[in-house]
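haha ok so turns out i had the wrong file open the whole time. this is the CORRECT one, sorry everyone. sequence first:
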Amino acid sequence: VQESSSYGPVSRQEVRRVRREGPRSTRSSSHASQSSLDELVTRPSPPSGGATAMQPVTLPPPPPPTSASASTPRLALQPTLSPSTSFLFPSLYSFPPFFTRQPNPQTWLSQLATWRTLVLAHARHTRTFSLDLSDAQCALEPFANPRLGRRLALETLRTIVEELVREGQAAWVDPQTKKAVWVYWKRPDEWASSIYAWVSETGQTNSVMTFYELVEGGDMAHTSEFYRLPLPLLRKALDLLVKQGKAQVLKGVGEDGDGVKFV
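then structure:
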């Protein structure tokens, strides 16, 4: 007895075999495929035409991966202590591009803000009250790093100073020439508060002092923050105290002869 299929007649014996064993074309197909793949990888090609069979070749293992730091030196940025002033410079002070104005506008704005902060911090630490806009100034801290052999260009220094003036953190010594600035690591109103606080604490109210005595003379002046404050900055602070009714400026003979009475 025969049964029919789409490929022709099939005997009953074949039907029983298929039911018992499954189709020959699909039996252990995955195993056969894997075996064939293994043979292609591990077995030599059979000889043909009298040629010698090729032997399997063992490739050397790839070299271990290496980190970029092992082959390329990293730029180590860390705070730097000034040997002359003991000022602790930020990490960027060791980065050569920091001394060159960056062309990208956003990068320059960030760079400019960092320079403003650095100039004020360095001036406070070293008690620097004024800056000149000159090549000589560009060769000094904090505008130059001798270890790197880098320094600011004069035009870049001028841009930084102009930004300090615009932000009220500096003032032109002579607005006409614009060759130097007073650095306001303390603003005139802050100097006024410091002076009047010292006067009150030391019992100097209702007494008359010359400008020289206030910023140069006496043991108490040496312990005050405004010791050796330049006279133009002292006058700015005293003018504010006069407006607040806390001081009276008395004209004397000469600049150092002027005096002040605190009330």
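The CA atoms of residues 13 and 19 lie 10 Å apart.
again sry for the mixup
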